[in-house]
Amino acid sequence: MKNFGRLLVIMSAVATIMIFCGCQKTRQDAAIVIIGGADGPTSIWVSALGLLGGGTLEYEDIGFFNVREISDDAAALEISGMCTSSALAVKSVRVKRKRDSLAVYFKTSLCVKENDSGAFHYEISIPADVNRVVLGTRKKEIWSRADGALSAP
User: Of 5, 38, 107, 151, which alpha carbon lies 20 to 30 A from 139's?
Assistant: First the structure.
């Protein structure tokens, strides 16, 4: 019974989307893309109402953002900040390497537990042959190693 209210909201969202999208396949595909991707039927409809709100945190959506080297040889970075959307919590971090760069992705989802928080504090190891670190899907550069001089925004 606890999730019955959510089920009603989801069903209402599905009905609303179907009314506006009609029955044409191309309109439905367009609606799915606009709503937020094909992560599954439930997440699409919940995202349509803005209830899930999850995704990848971008630089523009972070308050009190800080990047700090935590070793003399730039072997690790400390990245901290706070998601500016009060309804979202930072759930995990994923680091992906591409050539001489590291991309850092902070995954968010709706705050549902008592200890959920938008604040984050992570340490990222930097291999010696990595020259820059970018944040999010927009690839905002947050750290670089240039001619022995280290810089962070």
Answer: 38
Average pLDDT of the residues of the chain: 75
Cα 126 from chain centre: 21
Who's near 127: CB < 8 A, 6+ residues apart? Answer: 97
Under 8 Å between Cβ of 67 and 85:
no
Q: How far is residue 135's CA from residue 145's CA, in Å, rounded to a whole number? A: 15
pTM of the model: 0.62
- How far is 140 from 90, CA to CA, in rounded Å? 18
Weakest-pLDDT range from 34-38, 80-84, 132-136, 143-147: 34-38
- In angstroms, rounded to a whole number, what is the distance separating the alpha carbons of residues 67 and 143? 8
Mark residue 106 as left, alpha or beta (left: phi above 0; alpha: psi -120 to 50; beta: remaining). beta
Q: CA dihedral in degrees (111, 121, 133, 127; nearest 10)?
A: -130
More confident residue, 13 or 135: 135
pLDDT at 147 over 60: no
